[in-house]
Design goal:
The complex is a heterodimer of chains A (about 300) and B (about 425). With about 300 residues, chain A is of the alpha/beta class. In chain A, about 35% of the residues lie in helices and about 15% in strands. Chain B starts with 5 loop residues before the first strand and ends with a strand. The longest helix of chain B is centred in the middle third of the chain and has 17 residues. In chain B, α7 links the parallel β5 and β6. Classes of the chains: A alpha/beta (about 300), B alpha+beta (about 425).
Chain lengths: ~300, ~425
């Protein structure tokens, strides 16, 4: 590697491609979880780099909470269709109709319920591996998770009993009914994602960039006003310049105030921000110290 | 930053008592990599536990509920931080004796190991253990961080004595690429800043060393090794006859037109093109992931290895290896296991247990089995030949994992001698 300097992004990219190819080669029936969010859009580009000029050796799967921002769903559909890859969508509403998800009230946050529909979808198609775009820097439970993360037949993660993972030699073996979650961008940070989006000129939903939006202030956060979130008495609607650092369930995903209009300006903001990505944007992660760990134990990706 | 920054992976070995969490906390804090919400969360937890005003920085890395409840570290935690010069991945491993397997795991991908000692205590059994494991797993660079210098009056004599003892020990293990740094993680001396208290020390503070240590040669740059991961056959109109061999260059380099040998068959051919999504390349280097097309049609599948070298790898059904047993179920010499080596998966059995190494004294003992955390030299037999180099020459083609077919667990890590 003497002539050509390899940057950290080159090394991370090569690692991710290597991981995706291992899944394709060793797993019988894998799927790529794709939501239309920035991390999963990076995953699509990595899959292109891993498998072109052939098609992807797996379908794209989205577990739709029906609480997604419309811009994100539009981007999801556009990218899947531009790439000519198969997109499978399964909705939480399907599980609600079947009675496998029971909501306390119609507009409550739905992130935690994604596990149910995800496990039903895995069973429906017999997936033995689901490739996801989670990163270790996102959350402290994720920091302990393997790249190839084994789940038992109930979809459960057992953090105290994980398979050791050495070198780049991944153990992909499962028995029937069990599956593996694979995280090719485990070692990427929020900053790496933005630098990659900038370098690769990736198309992402425009709500990631600064725009004027009606918001209300609730529970120490800013919430976007939508058909799911309406001002309660005493709350006033404000218009702010904001962008989303993550795009999840509209009822609990908060934007941050920002004037960054492109990836480069977001990189500059990310370099000086003093709040973590999830800390700034996800109300459901702050309910307890172990929110994410508990969700993962129940089958969340 | 994105145009030139390199990635450095390092591990920290030492116990909480040596100030390991304080050191990591200091690196993250002084490089401005701790976020306000993280700090406020661990401050709250520290207060709830009745911590006496001090924020417990170990809470940053203890990600699991059980760890926070019990105040212990169970597993390797990965943390990320960056300076304008480099991006860093820290593999933080627990220091307890029973966690040899975690250190082996984290060390397997590390460029550098920081071995932490308390200046008051000097070189301890655990220091020797950590150094042995780092050398066994072939971590290319070792830094001895002599911490708590404030507790010994910042004494140069104390530091020199510790370094001399440590260097003598490390030399026995064949460790030569090492640096000793005196520091006080608590006061911040020689971690990120030089501080005022260690002016007699001529070397760099820790972070400066992490930013500048040369890692270009941590990968073997001479022997081209390319395990085939996946055969790409698009079978579309446009790419009707395309047959590409996808993989990652684990070591060395390759150019279009180079003659290569395909192992284990031994057939030779030439590289026609180096295909990537971003266009064809004239030349590619480890650790790039690429797709190679060849001038001849040859039957090639996953598990084959392309090589180009004056020194060929070995292809054999028998070899000896150093093994770290990782599983709670002991080794059963009467059973067959599975080996995954590069992209090849084969059945194996343990022909002989040569000896077990006491990681504390480095003495060799006879042993009838292996238990979790044991390190041993073994002779192995495999069903089909593996194509390998010695681990010392090549970390990627010299390593393997052992899988128990009954449970599918990874039960051992091996390094071929």
């Amino acid at each position: 590697m003497s002539n050509q300097p390899f940057t950290h992004l080159d090394v991370l990219e090569s690692e991710s491609i290597h991981i995706m190819r291992e899944v394709a080669a060793e797993c019988k029936n894998p799927a790529l979880l794709f939501s239309g969010g920035k991390d999963s859009i990076v995953m699509l580009r990595l899959a292109e780099k891993a498998f072109r000029p052939a098609r992807f050796p797996f379908p794209l799967v989205h577990i739709d909470t029906e609480h997604n921002f419309p811009e994100v769903i539009a981007c999801r559909d556009k990218l899947a269709s531009d790439l000519g890859e198969r997109l499978i969508v399964r909705s939480l509403d399907g599980s609600i109709k079947k009675g496998t998800i029971v909501l306390k009230n119609a507009d409550q946050g739905r992130n935690a319920f994604q596990s149910v529909t995800l496990l039903e979808t895995i069973a429906e198609f017999g997936f033995d591996a689901c490739i996801g775009g989670a990163r270790r820097d996102e959350e402290k439970a994720r920091a302990k998770e393997r790249i190839f993360s084994f789940r038992d037949e109930f979809g459960q993660w057992d953090p105290k009993n994980q398979r050791p993972e050495l070198w780049d030699t991944y153990n992909t073996r499962v028995h029937a009914g069990e599956n593996i979650r694979v995280f090719p961008i485990s070692n990427w940070t929020e900053m790496d994602i933005w630098e990659y989006i900038s370098r690769e000129k990736l198309y992402i939903p425009d709500i990631y960039y600064a725009h004027e939006r009606e918001v209300i202030r609730r529970d120490n956060g800013i919430l976007p006003v939508s058909h799911l979130v309406q001002p309660r008495s005493g709350e006033t609607v404000e218009k702010l310049m904001v962008r989303f650092r993550t795009v999840g369930d509209m009822t609990c995903t908060c934007p941050v105030e920002s004037h960054a209009r492109n990836a480069q300006e977001i990189i500059e903001e990310t370099a000086i921000t003093r709040i973590t990505e999830r800390g700034a944007t996800r109300m459901d992660d702050q309910t307890s110290e172990a929110s994410m760990e508990l969700r993962k134990k129940e089958g969340y990706f | 930053m994105s145009n030139t920054t390199q990635l450095l992976r390092f591990i920290t070995a030492g116990s909480v008592d040596d100030g390991k969490s304080t050191l990591i906390g200091r690196l993250l804090h002084d490089s401005k990599s701790i976020f306000e919400d993280q700090l406020s969360a661990i401050t709250k937890t520290s207060e709830r536990r009745g911590g006496m005003g001090a924020v417990d920085l170990s809470l940053l890395t203890d990600g699991l509920q059980a760890e926070r409840e019990q105040g212990i570290t169970i597993d390797v935690a990965y943390r990320y931080f960056a300076t304008p010069k480099r991006k860093f991945i820290i593999g933080d491993t627990p220091g307890h004796e029973q966690y040899t397997r975690n250190m082996v795991t984290a060390a397997s991908t590390a460029n550098l190991a920081i071995i932490l000692i308390d200046a008051r205590k000097g070189v301890l059994t655990q220091t020797r253990r950590h150094t042995f494991i780092a050398s066994l797993v072939g971590v290319p660079h070792i830094v001895l961080a002599v911490n708590k210098m404030d507790m010994v009056g910042y004494s140069e004599e104390t530091f020199d004595a510790i370094c001399a003892e440590y260097r003598a020990f490390a030399a026995q293990l064949g460790v030569h690429e090492m640096t000793c740094i005196p520091m006080s993680a608590l006061n911040g001396d020689m971690v990120v800043e030089r501080g005022e208290n260690l002016n007699w020390y001529q070397g760099s503070p820790l972070l400066e060393l992490l930013e500048n240590v040369v890692i270009d040669h941590d990968i073997n740059t001479t022997d081209f090794r390319y395990p085939v991961q996946w055969v790409c056959r698009p079978q579309t109109q446009e790419y009707h006859d395309f047959r590409g061999y996808m993989g990652r260059i684990e070591s060395g380099e390759i150019a279009a037109g180079d003659e290569i040998t395909i192992l284990p068959s031994g057939r030779t051919t030439k590289v026609k093109e180096i295909v990537t999504y971003d266009g064809n390349l004239q030349r590619a280097y480890a650790p790039q992931s690429v797709t190679l097309t060849l001038t001849d049609e040859i039957d090639i599948s996953r598990g084959d290895m392309f090589v180009k070298s004056a020194t060929m790898p070995q292809a054999s059904k028998e070899f000896e290896a150093m093994l770290c047993w990782l599983s709670e179920s002991p080794l059963d010499l009467s059973r067959k296991y599975i080996i995954k080596h590069t992209t090849r998966v084969v059945k194996c059995l343990f022909a002989r247990l040569e000896y077990r190494v006491d990681v504390n004294t480095l003495e060799q003992h006879n042993s009838a089995t292996l238990n979790m955390n044991d390190i041993a030299r073994v002779a192995m037999k495999v069903q089909q030949p593996l194509v390998f180099d010695s681990y010392i020459k090549n970390r990627f083609t010299g390593s393997f994992i052992v899988i128990d077919e009954a449970t599918n667990n990874t039960v051992a890590a091996g390094m071929i001698i």
